[in-house]
Design goal:
Layout: E1 5-7, E2 13-15, H1 23-54, H2 61-71, E3 77-78, H3 79-86, H4 91-103, E4 107-109, E5 119-122, H5 124-146, H6 151-179
Antiparallel strand pairs: 1-2, 3-5, 4-5
Helix pairs in contact: 1-2, 1-5, 2-4, 3-4
C-alpha cells in the first residue's frame, strides 16, 4: 500500500496520519497538536513560576493555578467554584492541591458564616507568592508581548476561538458518554 503524504506547513511534510484525511482535518489536527503543546508549556510555566516564587519543588503547575483561582477577585472560593472555573470534574485532584496549599500556609480556610461548606482564601504568605508570580509573569510574558503588533486584538480573537472549541469538546464528551 502506498503511503499518502500531506503537507503540514509550508516547510514540513508528514506521512498521512489517522486524524487528518482532508485539509480541514489537517488544520484541526495541527490546532489540537498546538493546543497539547500549549497546555504543557503553560503547565511548566505555572510550575516554574511557583517554584521560583517559593523555592519549593514539591508543587506542580495545577497547584499554582488553583492558588491564583482562589485569589481571583479577592473572594473566598469553594471546591465547586474552583472546579467550575477550571472546567474540571476531578474533585479529588483539586482537593489534593488544596490540601497541599493549606499545609504550606499559602491558603487558609475562610471565615464563612453560611455553613454551606468550606471556602478558601489566599493567606498573607500566599499573597506574597502570588505577587511574586505576577511580577515574573509581567516581566517574562506580558512585557515582551507588548512589542507584538496587534497583540491585544489577536488575543481577543484567539480567546473567542478557543472558547468555541471548549464548547465543542465539552459537547462531544457529553455525546460520547451516552454512546459507550
Amino acid at each position: 500500500m502506498k503511503k499518502q503524504k500531506i503537507e503540514l506547513s509550508e516547510s514540513t511534510e508528514l506521512d498521512h496520519w489517522h486524524l487528518a484525511h482532508t485539509e480541514s482535518e489537517r488544520f484541526l489536527a495541527e490546532f489540537e497538536h498546538t493546543l497539547i503543546c500549549l497546555a504543557q508549556a503553560f503547565d511548566r510555566h505555572n510550575l516554574m513560576g511557583l517554584v521560583a516564587s517559593i523555592g519549593d519543588s514539591s508543587f506542580n503547575g495545577q497547584d499554582n493555578i488553583i492558588l491564583h483561582i482562589i485569589g481571583t477577585l479577592d473572594r473566598p472560593k469553594s471546591l465547586s467554584d474552583i472546579s467550575r472555573f477550571m472546567n474540571r470534574d476531578d474533585l479529588a485532584n483539586i482537593q489534593y492541591s488544596v490540601r497541599k496549599l493549606l499545609k504550606t500556609g499559602l491558603i487558609e480556610k475562610a471565615n464563612d458564616k453560611s455553613a454551606r461548606g468550606t471556602n478558601y482564601q489566599v493567606s498573607a504568605e500566599g499573597r506574597l507568592v502570588v505577587d511574586a508570580f505576577v511580577r515574573l509573569r509581567q516581566e517574562l510574558i506580558v512585557e515582551p508581548m507588548k512589542e507584538m503588533e496587534q497583540f491585544k486584538e489577536n488575543v481577543k480573537i484567539a480567546t473567542k476561538i478557543m472558547g468555541l472549541f471548549v464548547g465543542m469538546y465539552d459537547q462531544s464528551a457529553r455525546v460520547m458518554t451516552t454512546r459507550s
